[in-house]
Amino acid sequence: MKKTNFRSGSALITVLVLTGTSLIVLGGVLGYVSQATRMTSYYESKSICRLAAQSEIEVAKAAINRQFEFSLNRAARIVGGDAMGVTSVSSYDWFDAYDGSTGTKRTIGKVVGTKDATLTLAEAVTNNGCIVKVRIGRVEHTAGDQWANVTLVAEATRSGRGGATCKSVIEETIRFAQQRSQVFNNAYFVNNFGWFEGGNTTFVNGDIRSNGNMKLDAAVIINGHVYAARNDTLGSGDVYGLIYGKNGAASMGDMHDLAEYQSSSKTYGTANRARPLELDPITGGINKGGYAAPENANTSAKRSRLHPNQEFSVEMPYIGDLSSDESDYRAWAQELHDADPNMSTIKQGGQTLVSVYYDGAGPSGKEYFYDADGNQIQAPDYGAIVLVGTSTNPIEINGPVIIPSDVIIKGYVKGQGTIYSGRNIHIIGDIKYKNPPSWNNRSTSGTNNKTKDLIGLMAKGNIVLGDYTDYGWLSGGNGIYEVMTSQTYVPAYDCDTSDAAIGYPSRFNATSGSTRVNYTSVEKVPASDFAACENAGLADFVPGGRESSSGQFGKNRGETVEVKSTRISKGEYVWEKKNKNNWSRVWYPAGEEIEITTEEPTPSYNRRYYESVCKDSIISQNASAITQIDAVLYNNHAICGHVGNSDIGCSFNGALVCRNEAIRYAGALYLNWDIRLYSGSNETVDNDKVGLAKSSDNPPQVIDWRELPEGIVTFD
Prior knowledge:
This protein has 716 residues and is an alpha/beta fold. The chain is 18% helix and 33% strand. The strands form 11 sheets. It has a 19-stranded mixed β-sheet that branches. A hairpin with a 2-residue loop joins strand 34 and strand 35 (582-588). It is globular.
């Protein structure tokens, strides 16, 4: 009995022990499961918070870039450093540099001009169940640099399962930069009104785009996309970005299919310069930016390449201040030159003609003229230059260089670089690369074309083609007068304040009462517009000079006045007028006081927009037919004039970018886009090498990213 009772007690204890052990194990398992569940919930919430924080940083990044573009576009910020009516010297002043020493903030951007371009981030937003706060940690910009770095910090908080609160803090530094403008991604870009009325004698191998309407003949051959964007700043009403043909009828234009594009029997005009096919027929590789030629150029293919009514235009930056010591363009060119003395130069025959900035006499050879009272006046062609290259003695360009006045150019060129003109560029004959690129429908070795010649011609005023002194250039049956004076082809548009220094009022080609200033008018700027230019520090140099009483601008027409001189400052020969028709060359020693009458050239204050500051004979005596232009053309205002002949027409090899266009051609016209301008091409030429106009319409670039521990940044 005792034995039996003992065994029963042992079993009970065993059961109790096993039960307790089971409970302990179960408790441990439940605790583990609970802990695992909490950890899973935590890490799940952490991932959601991280994603929400990053998402809101992306939103803030886009908003900042959009507002920065707004400050440039709507308040007329000028790439290169200036603003309408604002004396600041950098487009990046908008960012309002902030070092973060006093904690985070929500607002970024200065008030620009008369418009509030600031941006204030939301106090908090809800994203995927998270409460997210985004703040500006710091802003960095060094004067002269073409970028600004903005550090954004985002905190996302979320309650997970079981009530646990999770938080993620992310910091990202973004660079907002002005890089080569996207306008150069097109064979033809016009800011105000695009038009092709040449029928099947017009060939474009590349995209065409207008920040306005596009008029397109049905037979015009466009081997690329066609864009037309809405623009509410032109003319007297809205411009909707329409693509149409004659008399407003629908038009898609024509195009080449694959076989036709490849056909050697087709004459493209410098056919080996047409952009390569998108799919290399030799290697099968992809040429980014190449022509996606359809197998069949049918109606569907033609229609699919049309893009009318685009809501967003592509920003066309103004060329701003070039002449002052504060010019960002000069600082940029000087920086490149300091790093490499061969950069930012124009040379010919081993002689350096320009180093960074041309500050010398024009073709008259004179720095100063004198008026009838003996007052010294800067020669109207001062700062202008004539460049004529030959096959054996080409013009050599390396990097960006600045000519503060007119450039008159023709002939062979070599190198990679850009000439910035403070007023007009007059192309008076063929411009041909000494070492041109070649594609022949496919891409050759990338390093070959990447190092071939690439020249930019950037004019603050106009690019004028041909001999404007010839009567038929402007008027007559084939003249361009009708286009240059039209408010359809040249809608009224706002000009940049700095362009008052070269004869442009605040709004151009607009009707005011009974008057209208168009491209054939005598240049004249009201005192108020010119004062705004001066007050902003943008009129340090006025090409040709300006007569304050009339508001008109000067040029050298070869006219002379009689000048009385009472002193010779140094020993020199002087042409002395003995009587009306009798002149003699007389030597006067240094310092001798005399009174003689000489005859001096004098400025003529009746210059027209298409004319040069130089004597017309400089144009007429050197001009020849234009059948080929190898260059990237860009200006603040118009490309106008005559090109081509009945035998071979004219080829533009590069890109043609302007606000207005008035070109007449004989024979045929070929526009061959240079694919090396495209940022996605494997043959892209670096912009610091060639030096083309920059813009803000490039996506921001991430410089740094990290996740921060909680508590380092205070958001309230």
